[in-house]
## 1
Amino acid sequence: MAASIVDRLRDAALRCCQDEEIEDLKASTQDFLDMLESPLNNLELRKESSANWLAQCEQVLQEAVDLLDPSLPSGLVLCEKIGLELPKVAVKFVSLSQACQDHCLSIIEDLAENCSPREMFAAFMEALNMYTTSETLICCIPLVQGLSIVFSRLKRRQGQFFQEASIGLLALVRLAAQDEGGEEEEETPMETVQGMDGHNVFTLGQVRAAIVNDIVQLAQTVRETCDTVGGITGEKVACPGTEVPVSVMELAELLPFCGLSLLRLLTGDQIEDLIETTSDEISEQVNGKNTKKLEASKGAALAVYWTLFNNQVAEAAEVTLKSIKEVLQFSGRRGIVAALSVAASLLTGQSSRPLSSVAAKGLALVDTILELVSSLTYSFDDEEAERWLALVLRIIPTLQRLQNVVVYALNVEMRRQGYAAFKKVIQDVVPEAARLQCLQMLINDCVSPSLVSLHLILIKDEIARAWPPSPQQQKEPIRDANPLRERLHTGAFASPFISNDVLDVIGSVLRPKNGTPPDLPDQIDSVQSALNLYRFILIRESSGKTNHTGILSKEALTMARKQWLLPLREHLGGVSVGLMGEADEMSSAMALAIDNLQSVVYRCLELNEEVFAQL
């Protein structure tokens, strides 16, 4: 009988390849599918001998694999003609035996690799929606794997296809997660999928794990293939508009079923665990894990953004502003830095330039976090060197992303907002003892002279704020409730901004690492700010008859004159002469700027020599 079915299957396949008329092709296609499915419906044989019945199913499915072989002209034609309807039937065999699993996956792969990816996307999604039930979850495994192949072949509008697929995929993940989170911990015999070969028993836990793993792999394929999609939540859902994307609501409701806490995602506690869970320790490289971490952080940031700015999502995620603030208070600076890192992941796309629509949400989230923590107080232990050194390394990437907004954002308002957030992070989150080192590291790696200038101005403000009070001021009653200011007032805390470390920062601008004068006129902004900072400290120390920074020592005055000011004066003279030979408007404006800078250099030299003469 099995041979008869095989012969009839071959006959139906031949007619499918030959028929051109729509009605004829429809009839021959249905005959092929009926012949393929007929062993499954042979209940009489199954009752008489399950072994013979299974052998017949495997034989017919193996014949289908041979007939669909894309290396043969007839096989390729058959794939194209019956591909839309075949997946729904082929996956019915997947739970019978290991051989049936292999044959079924082979059919799905042949269809995904050789038929139109758009048509197979529709066919796989139709079948996926049909089998997204607790009883037929196992049938979805080869379909998700087929979708991964399809997405890798799509050349256009990948983001749109992924959005269309997300509803079905989210429903599938939800079903798997809900089943897995059931009250019963031990699986009963009813919770297994028994292979008819007697050697292949699948627990529903294994099926659910395979579903989740395959969808994770599908998401990775989409991330690698699509320029506009950034993971399951992805940047695509962060489109402009006030309405919440459906996928965001679905994901917010899904988080608890996946054992994920939005609050723990915000502070980064669960992101590392997720990366380790979805990474192959042998084949996954460090860069791959870092990319996964960035994408996971973006997804977490978007989930938090919608939670904070939409009541529907907040209710679905069971999160309030109060609960977020409590978590940040409990986690201290480390948790706040981690939360800012997650939020700042939205500030960059695939280049250093911020994506305007997504960066706006990232900035809003950063601002909200900073507002929530503005009233928090920190333990003085956070000021200790062994604690803040690691914190500085964690906060630097966030500050660099905010820098990118200041430099590359498309509009002035976003640049202003980015710099305001940068200042708040420096002044409200980074410990006092770590701020100068943090700014020094940023200055060393910064390619924008204008941004270096802003950092130097910020250092000047910090110096003015931290400057020790005069003896008369120390006798006055303390009216500042800030305990750190009280420590500064009493002289119990030595700020790095009131030390010779500040001179090192100035020197890194006026005399770069290569020992040559700065590149002018390109770095004119940073050089002028460095000179103004030097002059500010020199005047403050000499007028107050103090030397907190060491700037008034003979060695420091001599070094500044010989290594900074005199070489810079000579260099400016040469640049000025060169600009005089050019008659265009831009050169004239630059020559004026160089003249102004020269006047600042001369004033610094005069002050330096006056102070030196008084020693």
## 2
Amino acid sequence: MKKCDICFKDYKGDAGIRIHKSKAHKDEPLGGASTKDKQSKTKTTIQASYGDHQTKDFKFKCKFCDKRTETETGLRIHHGIVHKGITYPEPFSTDEKGSRTKSVQDAHGDNHTDDLQFKCKFCDKTFQTERGLKIHHGRVHQDKDFPGHCYKNSTGSTAATKDPYAKSVAKEELLRSPSVPLDMMVKIDKATVTDQAIDRLSDQLEECKMSKKDSSAASEAMNSFTDSFLTELNKISKLKWFFFNSGSFYDKTRNSPDEFDLMIYPDVQVSVDFDDKSVLGFYKVKMVSTRVPELDGTVTRNDYIRPEAYKTYVFELFDRVLQKIREGRRVTKRVKSRNSPAYTIDYKAIPGKKAIDVDLVPCFKIEGWPPVAKRLDPKWISYDSVVHNAMKSCDVVCKKCPHDHPDNNLLWRLSFAKAEKMLMKHANSSGDSTFKKDAYRFIKLYICNMKDQFPGKIQKFSSYCIKQFIFTEFDNWPKKPTEEVIIQRNILKHLIEGLEERCIPNYFLQNDNVLQFIPTDELNLLCRGMKMEYEKLLGNK
């Protein structure tokens, strides 16, 4: 069966999908929804997407787009997600012909349009306040300088004004949490918690669980592999190599036992040029140790280490190791993008079981907490030693910088893999809730299921993005006991907002947006999937 990537209906083949899209989604490109998806969905599209609602009366029409809903509550939810930068107007119903009821129309007039005087120079969005426009520009048009705003004058034409503080505001304010914090959201969520929603969350929890047998077998196999791999690596190399485990198997949020991440680094001293802040999150790395002949081919005359050369050299070492160790006979090297920092293998460790996906990531360990990162103070971690140890070090990995920069071939990506692991592992330690880690696992499950439904469509959005999002949710966790369904659906609502606005702030680096290089089509697809999960937790499906 094939699934439509716009409304998720099932069809037998590609031909069926094409015919369906030509009729139900004729205003949208065949590859997925356009960037105007949220503004152009008509009643016809709604009926195509939700066949069981076709006979219902969608009488509440959005003031700012063509969206219609059956209830005022539905309209408010739509407005809160899609038009949150605009003051919510009272809804108005429509008569059978689709025009506004006159009494309501007279009451509202067309004043709302006149109030929206701040117009974006790069798209058609208009805002009531200059700050709303600025926030929209840090999230959506971050690659462009803020030009000031356009306002409507009395003749209807537009005039521009420059804001001398725009650039500083864009860097200081725009990547704050984009909406009402989670603890406030759950207080104002008055929607009923239905039996269907409770059952849905319960079923998903069962789906997330790993059997202890499978987990133990995978762990034993990986321990044996790691011992053999590091022993052989230290035989063929004159450097001393170490590793640490990262990823969700080790922070106890694994949904399946078939993925492991290993960060591998040599015992050499390097320094990071944090003074060069031209590309946030990417920095030059310099060799500090006395000359290391083995790495001579990776170092410039100024002692800067070239990430691509270092990765190539270490990958060649990995090749030699796998040819030597006994476990190497059950390993298949996976071909990945040249820009990937990981050497990925499929390790057929357990007969009759799925191959284990292993990412071996060459890196350098950086002692101390980087000055460009925010100081961690999560109230949801009850052990001070955990936070202290999380900030003892960070890493740099060979992730290619996507910006056009004169030193692009020298820039390394700053990584907080160790801190992420420690924070997630102890996320439930404060005692206020045991649901935090499950909430994260549910989001991962949603994404994993979508990847299975749409192979090749979701490639850039990863667990890393989800962690940056969920840590902020943990910071604003409800203080009082709250229904898990209410918490999860409001977490989903926040995630939908982030996907709609193409902005999830990096938890560790201020003003860094982890979604900025993810394709719009991928974000649109994710957004539609999360909306369907949100509807299910409202008990609507």
## 3
Amino acid sequence: MDSNHQPNYKLNKTEKKFLRKQIKAKHTLLRHEGIETVSYATQNLVVANGGLGNGVSRKQLLPVLEKFGPVDALLMPPNKPYSFARYKTTEESKKAYVTLNGKEIVDDLGQKIILYLNFVEKAQWKELEPQALPPGLMVIEEIISSEDEKMLLESVDWTEGTDNQNCYIKHKPDQLTINQYEPGHGIPAHIDTHSAFEDEIVSLSLGSEIVMDFKHPDGVTVPVLLPRRSLLVMTGESRYLWTHGFCQPLFYETTVGIITSDVGDLTLSKRGIRTSFTFRKVRQTPCNCSYPLVCDSQRKESPPSFPENNKEASQLEQEHVHQVYEEIARHFSSTRHSPWPCIVEFLKALPSGSIVADIGCGNGKYLGINKELYMIGCDRSQNLVHICREKQFQAFVCDALAVPVCSGSCDACISIAVIHHFATAERRVAALQELVRLLRPGGKALIYVWAMEQEYNKQKSKYLRRNRISQEKKEEVNSDASVQGLLVEQMPDMDNQDSASSVSSINDFQEGGCDSRKVMNSKLPIHTNRTAFHSQDVLVPWHLRGNPDKDKLVEPFGLAGSHDPSPVFHRYYHVFREGELEAACQTLSNVSILQSYYDQGNWCVILQKI
């Protein structure tokens, strides 16, 4: 029924009611959201009552819409009671308009909801304000014609049985990398190695558009839409300081221009195969850029110290947790098998059907403990998430300070050996607050952090006791989990280094050896494995052993020493004193501490949202 024209017959009571509701929906969208409907058919529909804000999920709505033809995009603004759908043809959208108007669907809570549809010229909402691009970044659209795009794609046809793999481009710069990304493939956040390439890096996108995330060390994220046939130019700050990368799912978030980082559950547009041509100039001299803390040419002159602000804390975590755990993921996972009894007990006690988020799921050791729960995992490490997916677990990559899950949507959360990797008290409290945000009222969270007190009630922790292992056994025991989150064993197990002193130079480690008699100039000490802690903020070594599956994982860019025969990596920790975790939890509003305890070298809290 077309709500914009009077029918030629008398409406019955039900039809009159529906017409009033549809007109009311149209006026409400205009008055409160600024969304103007049109009286003629277009490819685009606004679906009133079909939004995340009133309990309709994408999983429910998309199959309903696809009954009338392929849906090019389904955009669902967060916390809004409407969504936008774009069909390939106007005929398909007209079929959906006629059939679905007034149709009942059931939301996530089992309640019936009636859909009201209207045509719009384009999908938009007021919240999406364009963000400024990182300094030195440009996106030049339509840099080549569609004919040139077709020719380039044909020149790199890598389908099986095809010999034509030649690229005819012969430009300066003097280095060209060509990559193809299937739907579901992406690249982790990284900075192209400073010492390897000159300032300007240029990348041509063909075949399919993507959203590339640029992230500043202070946590600001700017998602940038790279349309097909566009040229990305990175110079200065955007090239040297901001990480860039993208996760390429089968569906992706889409809007006009730049997508703001707080949009969350936005989307969908179907992904095609993307081919990128990236041009670089090989550097012949050391880099002397203005960003020494992230520059591999200058970094040895600036060993890490206690962070004095949020920016320095983020940089410390990036280098001494995030990058490290990307590198050691497979080795780390191989040392993580047995579930911890207290965590298993917590998960087993939850009601059947509970939604549980493992914030820092690591290799997914707890995601399958209780089959009666609906568990999702997230981790900062793409390589550990890859391992979770190999096990058929639901897991995704994200930052523990900004988990892309709706507020109040979880019955429980666990955070195991994650929060001790944040480098300031403020960031540790922010991570706790993010856990509370995810919980529904009455929901519970279980939190584990590494304890400074490795001897408690006159009993040594397993971590210290393992220092008795004889040198002949050389048992493979290693460290804990990564920041923002990786899941670990009962305590972060470390390699034996009986001859090393408790403080040594990080530069000595980076150069391939450890002189136990030297002392680093930095204020941040390197801890000796299997010994008591003398400082709350430390770097803990991980000696990487043989890793035959390493080629299956994503290699982090520009990580010094990553190709050494037996490299040593250093992870940042803040070990908690007795009472410190409870004190941090007590700064949160609407939280009650149900239980706090010590568990084999870890301080633990169970809290409830009230």
## 4
Amino acid sequence: MASASKSFLADAGYGEQELDANSALMELDKGLRSGKLGEQCEAVVRFPRLFQKYPFPILINSAFLKLADVFRVGNNFLRLCVLKVTQQSEKHLEKILNVDEFVKRVFSVIHSNDPVARAITLRMLGSMASIIPERKNAHHSIRQSLDSHDNVEVEAAIFAAANFSAQSKDFAGGICNKISEMIQGLATPVDLKLKLIPILQHMHHDASLASSARQLLQQLVTSYPSTKMVIVTLHTFTLLAASSLVDIPKQIQLLLQYLKNDPREAVKRLAIQDLKLLANKTPHTWSRDNIQALCECALQTPYDSMKLGMLSVLSTLSGTIAIKQYFSIAPGATATTTRSSDIVKLAQECCYHNNQGIAAHGVRVLTNIAASCQEKDLLPLEQDAVFGLESLLVLCSQDSSPGTQATLKIALTCMVKLAKCRPHLSQSIVESLLTQLHSAQDAARILMCHCLAAIAMQLPVLGDGMLGDLMDLYKVIGRSASDKQQELLVSLATVIFVASQKTLSSEVKTVIKQQLENVSNGWTAYRIARQASRMGNHGMARELYQSLLTQVASEHFYFWLNSLKEFSHAEQCLTGLQKDDYSSALSCIAESLKSYHKGIASLTAASTPLNPLSFQCGFVKLRIDLLQAFSQLICTCNSLKTSPPPAIATTIVMTSGSDLQRCGRISNQMKLSMEEFRNLAARYGDLYQSSFDADSATLRNVELQQQGCLLISHAIEALILDPESAR
């Protein structure tokens, strides 16, 4: 039901004409004021698309106030539509400016005589809990509705209580006793108790509240031994412990106890699921005894599904500090070799298991132990890990099913980690990958290429050794136009770019371009060009962008590709920069700026009203100004040679009282450079602030540019304040 409604809301508005924000809102408002129920509903369900396209606080505030009016005066079906829109647009609720007015209009329905209307209102309030966590009238209404005789209203009150408990400490503290009474009350049906128990997971705001909730859950586990009750109570128990970080070791012991002693499969699966959650969230709380008990359960169980679940927990723990605690020797204890420990024994048994998932987790445990523990006798363990990875690689590379590919991803991730932590094993790992690359399925080849690229990025010295095999393979692949073959062309080209370390030979360029001309489509060539730009092979990228200029049907795409071609040429010019060669540096920067100015003109021409490319244009303009600032700084530094301080510099200092005049005119020029870099840093900061919808990697790049400009301005300022060093 929920997924169906979500897809319905997501698809609503498909095909509507592109409008600006105000026009789109007015169009929807016209639908809301229509006298036909169908048109009103259609207008309501199109609001999420409006929010996604125009996520501006003023528009969102106006839109939600209009929806609140519909909620107040409409029928229950319209209210339900508004509720779904609110839940789908939860991330935009914090942008509502008139929260009081919005809540007032919604809350007025709580006094209705219709229990369904009250139930929808309660769910609406619960969905808004993040912006109204301390509204006492909402708290009071939820408490009242928990005592209602209408099941629909009670379930809605439970939903609202859970949401408010997660947000409000006061509400959680006030509702905890009432929830406890209802759960323990004999008049409360069991199915209602099962719905009430999960609210207790939110009683984590302080230690006393968490302790009282934990005591209640402890009583419920022993008092109600039915499967459903045990599962719900145990899971709530775990979520409470993970949220409050209270008594987590006790919770781990309790789950291990149920895993070991409870005969019910559903309870065991729930225990494994919760142990995995705690392993991810609090691995430092796992003691050696906890890990040992889990290993013993995994060694004793005859069921592969249970063994797989326990191994997934152990593989998670093996990548954290818990594995070091497991192998650490307590004072006064006797040393235990890694070969004889149960976890190593379990991993060695499982790494050749006929179940691929079990084998993958077994190899992952061995890899993490070999990478994390620095004992001297790990050579046999390393060999076991490499042999297990190679066997998994051979097995999974011949099957393109989703499950097998997931297993292959685990194996390849382990290979990258092992090559990084144990560099002496990297050569054999790379040879295994290159050997298997020739006979593997295309889906597996793509993943293996990603693995080779990651290893080559970590250990560039291995790049030259793998380049020959990669080129031989590149010549014979791509004989069909299937999606996998095209994806493989991109992946192999990426590995070649990484292995070449920014210096592609003419032979490599010829092979790549010839292959692209024979079998690739324009999109594949574009993706390879982007990878070339990303890996610093700007010359290759420029040639590929040039070849694509005549293959697009839109002039906007033409100008976009032309701008990328010019930017690639500009960056290629900068690769000729050499240390202490200032004359060539100025010529390289000048040539680069020439291409950048051509590129920004094309990029501006590529923009449209619906796609203005404002971030791209702003970033490139900052790049141009940054290069000009560097050029000016180099000229300023050279001026110390061409225009040294005058012979009367000391007299000028004594007359003016400014010690900076001792250095001559360069001091003023350096001040100008300092201000220029400081202004650039401020502009990068403005771009960072305005790019609220950019991804984290892009924002990090902008932030690094800003910090770099600030560092340069501080360095120039320090140089100005120390005239002796400037001379």
